[in-house]
Amino acid sequence: MDRFQATCPADPSCIEQFDPSLIQKKYDEEGTENSVWVAVYRSNQNQPSVFVRDEFFHVMSVATTMDTSSSSASSSSSFKASWPEKLQTPLARQKPVAVAQLRASPDYEGKGVIDSLRCALKKEDTDEACDGGSEFLEALGVGLDSLVLHHLKKQSRRDGDDESTISFEGAIRTKATLFSNRLLEERGFSPVENLSRDMATHISSLDGCLQKYAERSVDTSLSMEARDRALQIVSILGQMDRPKEGENSNDEDDGDDFDPWANIKMQI
């Protein structure tokens, strides 16, 4: 059973339904060419009670995270805009349960960064029938796979260009949390060995991701949609160029001797 489905790229308005603070004016000014969001929703395979439960937790989250620093009039307006008039299943379906972003790295030219991996479902609710052992991890995994697939499709469309060699090795960087660490390594992302400017903990690995996604594509315990995404990823990865011998594709040792304590030392 496919519990979740993803929209990628997702419209910023979809992300605002999850958390308005994730969409800033700066994002609108910079445009969406070098940034893409994914929104993960529950599929219609779920029981109606599941949607009602999600809607209840969403309402409670809105009620407990309201910004009380603004004026009462402003707060009241925000409250009315966010609080649904009635508790009903269709509203829950329209709100993403997880989101994530893939954007251009400000530190490494030509690299992408996956961040804002967020999920509204409870981390503590485990279910061995889920991909990853819980609905929380399965929803995040759907978002992660969708962004990887989007990136690869975009790169494959550049195959006819003569601008540069297309490679997946070290092309995507991210900072893992206690929970996303498992998702990344189960999909072949490699832990970084040296501290870098963007403090990334994992980077994409062509051979690692090719192996892990190939395993997922034939894993019958996964949903058909999950296996299909994995198969599409494997198909494109198989056509990617490997870095030349001696080429530093990961940009971990870029010669700048990154020191995270530099600012502190200057103040002493």
Q: How would you sum up this structure, described in words?
A:
- By secondary structure, the protein is an alpha+beta fold.
- It has a domain of 143 residues.
- Helix content is 40%, strand content 13%.
- The protein has ten helices and seven strands.
- A seven-stranded mixed β-sheet has the order 1-2-3-4-5-7-6, sandwiched between helices.
- Strand 3 and strand 4 form a beta hairpin.
- The longest helix is centred in the middle third of the chain and has 22 residues.
- The chain is globular.
- About 10% of the residues have low confidence.
Element layout with pairings:
Blueprint: E1 4-7, H1 12-18, H2 25-30, E2 35-42, H3 48-64, H4 72-82, H5 89-94, E3 98-104, E4 112-119, H6 135-156, E5 172-174, H7 180-186, E6 190-191, E7 202-203, H8 206-217, H9 224-237, H10 262-267
Parallel strand pairs: 4-5
Antiparallel strand pairs: 1-2, 2-3, 3-4, 5-7, 6-7
Helix pairs in contact: 6-9, 8-9
Task: Describe, in short, the structure shown.
By secondary structure, the protein is of the alpha+beta class. The chain has helices spanning 12-18, 25-30, 48-64, 72-82, 89-94, 135-156, 180-186, 206-217, 224-237, 262-267, and strands at residues 4-7, 35-42, 98-104, 112-119, 172-174, 190-191, 202-203.
